[in-house]
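Standup notes, structure subgroup. Blocker cleared on the zinc ion input:
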Amino acid sequence: MSERQIIRDIARYSDHDAPAHHWSLVIDGETVSELWVDMETGEILQVETPREHQRRGYASALYRRAASEMAIYHAPEAHRTPEGDRFARSVGGESLPCLHGCCDDSPDFDDEE
Ligand SMILES: [Zn+2]
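Run returned:
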């Protein structure tokens, strides 16, 4: 039997980032997936699951827990990393519009690098 727990705290993704809501899935003392959410907008800032722990639904479990505790949103499509985009498509749920004025409303961003 492995012991599995989800821990919620407040943490920075990196030294350059503001404090954020942070959920960690810990199995037998090892952190196997982490999720950071902006404290003001509810935007998902980062999701990280080490490669050896991927494809087990860990990040989805964190998403469901976080979404049950507060309103959380995926980043606007144009702002997502490829990993973030895959994650958003796999777990579903709502996304934020662009709040930074850098995107027009058209969904066609194909020409941008
Ligand atoms: Zn934008």
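Discussed briefly. The helical segments are 58-69, 82-91.
Next: hand off to the docking folks.
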